[in-house]
Design a protein that fits this description.
Shape of chain A: globular
Strand order of the largest sheet of chain A: 2-1-3-4
Helix content of chain B: 25-40%
Order of helices and strands of chain B: HEEEEHEEEHEHHHHHHH
Radius of gyration of chain A: 15 Å
Structural class of chain A: alpha/beta
Number of helices of chain A: 5
Number of helices of chain B: 10
Distance between the termini of chain A: 26 Å
CATH architecture of chain A: 3-Layer(aba) Sandwich
Strand content of chain B: 5-15%
Structural class of chain B: alpha/beta
Oligomer: heterodimer
Largest sheet of chain A: 4 strands, parallel
Number of strands of chain A: 4
Largest interface: A-B, 27 and 32 residues
CATH class of chain A: Alpha Beta
Number of domains of chain A: 1
Order of helices and strands of chain A: EHEHEHEHH
Number of domains of chain B: 2
């Protein structure tokens, strides 16, 4: 069974890291769909929740290492915001393992591939996302 | 002389001295147990100011964007919300004259009968007033709060449960949600002119509650109004409290 993964990658580090993984001919699972964002702090909590209700089984946010942000402090904001989101989702009974935050630099193509491998394995173990998708009511889903 | 008498007297004195133009307080509602927030502009109406244990509404929500010098009565929980609004530039401090009033907790009214203290009052840890110009009977406030442990008891209880049990707990509550937006409208820190929840996409159930809680993250003063006004009895304040608990750690 193949799970769908959405990866939000920051333009300056993780996206270049994914590029490096590609040019280095490293394999990582094809069901990872990358969305390029200017900075990891651009990822609003609604993006993540919307990805889930639209059928993603896992969402991973990748950014520059702390201190390396192109905009100086963006990834600190992302970390604060996502820590709160993850703790709230856990509190509401959603599987904590379906969301992940990882710092990947432009030079870490191998780490990018390894992270995606590990995350896909982790989400595959949980199977299809049922709880998150129920976030929308049926009426809401029809209007989408 | 009790608080109510003192409040009326001070309102008259301040109005006569020309310090204030209007008063924001509680007036008698349709039932004695439901006092409603109200603005008073004429001195002869100041006799209608009511203050008792049924005054559950948080007045600080109503001072957002006032333009005239207003006398406002604040209890500790209201005063914290008020301070937050001043911090966020939603209220001009010079447009307000704040009187801190003593508070020993509000009583829950259920089908016309007074019940126990409100949940937010039972777990209230606020005994101080961040901002005020003068005080009335604040010496009665419980200075040493015994509620600190009780405040996060429900959060930690849910946290210690299984993931599935928590999911079932919230599903049972959120399936009751009618999206009346009462929890949003009553919240003192919800003051965006345009709300993301009013978009064309119906964001229902858990989605709405997750976003609502996260938008209050770091600004919520834990006044408990959101749960008080919920017509379906959803403990929405627990989500905010969980976020406070996480950031405190």
């Amino acid at each position: 069974m193949s799970v769908k993964i959405v990866a939000f990658c920051c333009n300056w580090c993780s996206y270049a890291g994914a590029d490096l993984a590609g040019t280095s001919r490293l394999n990582y699972p094809a069901q990872v769909k990358i969305i390029r964002v200017p900075c990891s702090c651009r990822v609003d909590v609604q993006f993540i929740l919307r990805a889930f209700v639209r059928g993603a089984d896992g969402v991973i946010v990748c950014g520059c290492h702390l201190g390396d942000c192109h905009y100086s402090t963006g990834n600190y904001h992302a970390e604060g915001r996502l820590t709160q989101l993850f703790s709230l989702l856990d509190f509401m009974g959603f599987e904590r393992e379906r969301v992940h935050l990882e710092w990947i630099s432009a030079a870490e193509g191998a780490k990018f591939a390894a992270t995606m491998d590990a995350f896909v394995t982790q989400v595959s173990a949980l199977g299809k996302n049922e709880r998150y998708r129920n976030m929308y009511t049926k009426a809401g889903a029809q209007n989408e | 002389m009790n608080e109510q008498e003192k409040m009326r007297t001070r309102a008259k004195e301040l109005h006569a001295a020309g310090i204030i133009k209007q008063v924001l307080a509680w007036e008698a509602g349709a039932f004695p147990s439901y006092p409603a927030p109200a603005f008073f502009t004429k001195p002869n109406a100041f006799e209608k100011i009511v203050y008792n244990e049924f005054c559950t509404a948080n007045l600080s929500k109503y001072v957002i964007n006032i333009t005239e010098k207003t006398l406002i009565f604040l209890r500790p929980c209201d005063a914290h919300s008020f301070a937050q609004l001043v911090k966020e530039n939603q209220v001009k401090r010079e447009n307000t004259y704040v009187i801190a009033v003593g508070c020993e907790g509000c009583v829950q009214v259920d089908e016309g009968e007074a019940r126990d203290l409100l949940e937010s009052c039972r777990t209230c840890t606020k005994t101080d007033y961040p901002l005020f110009d003068e005080e009335i009977n604040t010496q009665n406030n419980p200075r040493e709060s015994t509620n600190k442990a009780a405040r996060f008891a429900e959060v930690t209880r849910l946290d210690s449960e299984e993931n599935t049990a928590r999911y079932a707990f919230w599903q049972a509550h959120f399936s009751q949600c009618i999206r009346c937006n009462a929890c949003r409208n009553i919240c003192p820190t919800c003051h965006c002119k345009e709300c993301v929840m009013d978009s064309d996409h119906p964001l229902d159930g858990q989605f709405y509650h997750a976003i609502r809680a996260l938008h209050q993250d770091g600004r919520c003063t834990d006044c408990g109004q959101c749960s008080r006004v919920c017509p379906r009895g959803i403990p929405v304040h627990l989500l905010n409290r969980k976020l406070i608990y996480t950031s405190n750690k």
